[in-house]
Amino acid sequence: MKFMKLGSKPDTFQADGKCIRYVISDLATDVTIIVGEVKFHLHKFPLMSKSNRLQKLVLKASEENSDEIDMVDFPGGPKAFEICAKFCYGMTVTLNAYNVVAARCAAEYLEMTEDVDRGNLIFKIEVFINSSILRSWKDSIIVLQTTKSLLPWSENLKIVGRCIDSIASKTSVDPANVTWSYTYNRKLLAPEIIVKGGMKYQEKIESVPKDWWVEDVCELEIFLYKRVMTAVKSKGRMDGAIIGEALKTYAVRWLPDSVDALISDVHSWRNKLLVETIVCLLPSDKGVSCSCSFLLKLLKVAILVGVDDSAREDLMNRISLKLHEASVKDLLIPARSPQTTIYDVGMVHSIVNQCMINKKCSQDLDLGKNDVGCTDFVLGHGSLLSVGKVIDGYLEEIARDPNLSLASFIDLARSIPEFARPVHDGLYKAIDMYLKEHLSLTKAERKELCSLMDVKKLTMDASMHAAQNDRLPLRVVVQVLFFEQVRASAGVQSLKNNPRDASRSTTNTEEEWEKTAAEDCNSIKKQMNQTKIKESEFPKNGKFLKKDSRNSKSGMQLLPSRSRRIFDKLWVVGKGHGENKSSETSGSSQSPTSMVPGDTKSAASSAKHRRHSIS
């Protein structure tokens, strides 16, 4: 810390209790100056030789036959006046970052200018501030902190503005040129090991990180912090990511962890102001420089403290641009009264809708560009896949809420476009969870809920689970069983045609499944009867099923026995759509596991009717 000593005479000020200060001298004191609750018994001549204001006040007191002068609203109080008084006596005075502002304001009040005496206190303090304080990083911050209690004097003397400009300028300095001390405790830098010729040399550690200044600025009060950050941004030389990191660090530093502390009457106004200030200071790149997790946490706090609508909408728009980075936990925004649900599903739905609008606008612009635009389009499509995945996880989580309406669940699920959800396993889990927690759903409601899911986009594990799920409508179970048989027949045929692809896992699109179904309908009954999983023919969960060679004759069919029995019964019902009622009870109606290989013509006819009846 920088300091400056003034004067050379020994300090002879003494105290008599808490309210009386006097100077030890052979001469009797002839004036009493009252500052606040303290009385200073001093001599007129030293004071009048340095202060123009005291000259006027002493003359006025003499005319009134009084030896007391009351200094009303003296900036800095008794301590600041004592510094000025000691300077007038030529006694030793030490100025530093903690008292220099008070001394400067007091000297201005007393009019200790060069007109009164050359080398007066104002001049010396200004030299100290400009040559030492403003050149020091930490001293500038300390001085800025002390200006708050001395407003409006410190503002009028431009001390606040000069400190802010000094701090903002230093934050923009190249880290390689930072030679002053700073605070940085947030994380340890990973050392970089230099390897040359197979030998490891000394570790190279970056001495000064780019965000070296963030923690020190966090010590500022919210109004001063806002002015400093505004000045930093106005310089135009600071990366938005560092500004975002600074705002995050400030929020962590000052926002309480508990909900009770956030909404308490004592601190609610301060917390609301803090959140609104941080939102106001967010980089203009609409959230690119701030993580989605931080923005969502800030939104949760904003809702709790009751920020205005404009700040909340700004946060939601920024979150929608980075929704692909969100996690399910971050999206669990607690609902506020009068909502009856656990989480605010409507707000998340609004964010998703805004995300889709942003993506559509971005893609419309990119499609009109050259190859670079095409690349951006592909990247945007990839981010939508991440959005689809996180929303499916969010749906599974909120499905546990007994108060969540079916309409809210369906609307949110449908807000994700089809191409953003190539696999429906996550959606199936969410639907299954909703069915499990809402047992009072009608048959029509269950059917509407399950219509969100495309069974052709389920993986094998999800299909096997769905085939045995008693909560699903029978129609959905039939569809799952049918397309699993199509998948199995297509897989066996592929293994026969190209054995090298036995270990390759593929996911067919809807169009490919339709083509496969059409090609295999004529032989589906025969193949379902003959399809068996042997040791090296079909993988399950990434591993091949192993069976003893003695059981290879009977084998293991793809579907569990329970699912095969359901399919056998439903096969007869499905066949009834294409034949008369008598054929349904006749011996010619057979299940797919009992079809003879030679009956291909009737199998093809029945398969066509059955495929039409369930799709």
TrEMBL record:
Comp. bias (Basic and acidic residues): 532-551
Keyword annotations for this protein, in alphabetical order, are: Phosphoprotein, Ubl conjugation pathway
Q: In which pathway does it act?
A: Protein modification; protein ubiquitination
- List the GO biological process terms: positive gravitropism; protein ubiquitination
Question: Which segments show compositional bias classed as Low complexity?
Answer: 583-594
Q: Where does the NPH3 domain start and stop, copy by copy?
A: 211-487
Q: What is this protein called?
A: NPH3 domain-containing protein
